Amino acid sequence: MGPRFGPRGKGLFVKLFIQPDDGIEPLLQAIAAAKKSIRILIFRIDRSEIEKALMDAVERGVSVQALIAFTNRGGEKNLRRFEMRLLEKGITVTRTAADLVRYHGKMLIIDGKELYILAFNYSHLDVQLSRSFGVSTTERNVVKEAIKLFDCDVKRIPYSAGCNDLVVSPVNARRELVKFISGAKKQILMYEMKISDREFLKLLHEKISQGVDVRVIGQTSARGNSLSARKLPIRLHARAIIRDKKSAFLGSQSLRRVELEVRREIGIIFSDQHVVKQMISVFDKDWRSAVPAVASTLSVLDAPANKVAKVVAKRINVDTKVEQVLDKVLDSDSEVAFEPKEIVENVREAFREEVHDAVVHAIKELSGEAAHSKSAATAKP
Asked: For 52-110, what is each residue's pLDDT tens digit?
């Protein structure tokens, strides 16, 4: 399944990429098509196809500039090794500053004319095993603004927003996303890693009270338990909001204070009708296959830790889970090898999520048993 093309009209002209359906190929094609320059912002990577494509671009005379995150969770050594390999091939490498907690945005700019904003990293886990999205646009003002942001981060100088369609944390993200959600009249469909910001939770509840249909695929904090939320049967790594079937936001920032105020996150707002309809189609399909999210208010205090551990151990077979992840990663037609050390962290992350879910289910199960036993004891004469 290839990229979706939207007709030019109101809003931005965009292409949509859906993971895991579209895979890494659209990005490889974009890099291969570059004639003059490539600017790429990388937070996490273990796809050696991307690395090879960048090196091939340098060999054919394309100027390649890579801006690499100064750190990511558990993968800093991989980033430094990646930097050295790029430098050896003549690629200009710059490391992001340490002024923000994390530089988490994913951005690719081809020939100064086409901008790619991704919710997924250049990793097997995000591309092959997760629901995620990416978009590209050739809209001149947005591309120009993205280049300005990239150059500011390369030079480590302050960036000031000059385009409302490019949503950048911590500069204009809160303002633009509040405005975007506030404008909803009928419906808000969301893919969200974790909604916990008080302002946005309050705003979403206000929208519900106004009769707006609000549906969330992902997680919310305890304050968001009244929201209609569901969990996908596959890993979710997307932040997207679809408003009134007319416009959409896609980016790297969740509605959490840390991602809005102390991290570099990048997103985009667009109104390409064809692409928005494609996103709605995917959301509707995912919503039907998703299950109600488990409330996050369950307390470990309701169940002894040793009992939780026993239930979790029964739910998870470590060898089987790791084998399943690796099988999916290795089941690829690509002949390009990947670095085993660099994929270990992604396997670890997938397993960490599996353990988290198993613990939540175990607590729920044991808490339910405890409540039932207490009720039965109370009912005895």
From this structure: 999 999 999 999 999 999 998 878 889 999 999 999 999 999 999 999 999 999 999 99
The answer on 280 and 155 residing in a single domain is: no
Q: How far apart are CA 22 and CA 265, in angstroms?
A: 23
Confidence of residue 127 (pLDDT cuts 50, 70, 90): very high
Instruction: Report the phi/psi class of residue 135: left, alpha or beta, with left for phi > 0 and alpha for psi in -120 to 50.
Output: beta
Determine the residue type at 361: H
What pLDDT does 75 receive?
82
CATH code for the domain in which residue 65 is found = 3.30.870.10
Instruction: Record the pTM.
Output: 0.78
Where among 224, 258, 292 does a domain terminate?
292
Point out the least confidently predicted range of 46-50, 71-75, 136-140, 175-179. 71-75
User: Of 113, 145, 165, at which residue does a domain stop?
Assistant: 165
Look up the domain containing 123 and give its range: 11-165
pLDDT at 158 over 90: yes
What is the C-alpha to C-alpha distance for residues 229 and 257, in angstroms, rounded to an integer? 20
Same domain, 222 and 277: yes
Q: Count structural domains, the chain.
A: 3
* Each residue's pLDDT tens digit, 18-36: 999 999 999 999 999 999 9
Residue 40, both tokens? 């790429």
